[in-house]
Design brief:
Blueprint lengths: L29 H5 L2 E3 L2 E4 L7 H6 L3 E9 L5 E8 L3 H11 L3 E3 L1 E3 L4 E2 L1 E9 L4
Antiparallel strand pairs: 1-6, 2-5, 3-4, 3-8, 6-7
Length: 127
């Protein structure tokens, strides 16, 4: 006969390590599934930024990373700069992005929906 291992001696309660809690997967909401983006926005018209002349003279280059939403009309909305080496480069990137136009993101049933995008603008001086 196999005996079970002995129980540990009683003592103070132990703390369990913290971490993610395991839960049953929630049921899929059909409305949420219908709003899932199937096609991402596609650039249709772009306007390149002008290099600020003051920064050309100073030799300042760099990468500006923008984040924004493409609205259902295909226009950029809520433009933010996530990273930039200089405020004038930020301004040049956001000003040019306002002139861009996209085909909006679409759901499985073909409806246009608002979608988040990130776009980098590299400012590099050509010798």
């Amino acid at each position: 006969m196999i005996e079970p291992p002995p129980l540990p001696p009683a003592g103070p309660p132990m703390a369990l390590p913290s971490g993610p809690t395991l839960m049953a997967a929630p049921r899929a909401d059909p409305r949420a599934a219908a709003d899932a983006v199937v096609t991402e926005p596609v650039i249709r018209q772009r306007r390149y930024p002008s290099y600020p002349s003051a920064l050309v003279e100073e030799g300042i280059e760099g990468l500006v990373v923008t984040a924004f939403f493409v609205g259902v009309d295909g226009k950029p909305e809520d433009i933010r700069v996530e990273r930039s080496p200089h405020p004038l480069l930020s301004q040049a990137a956001t000003d040019s992005l306002k002139g861009w136009h996209f085909d909006p993101a679409r759901t499985a049933d073909g409806r246009a929906v608002r979608a988040r995008m990130r776009l980098p603008f590299r400012f590099k001086l050509v010798e």
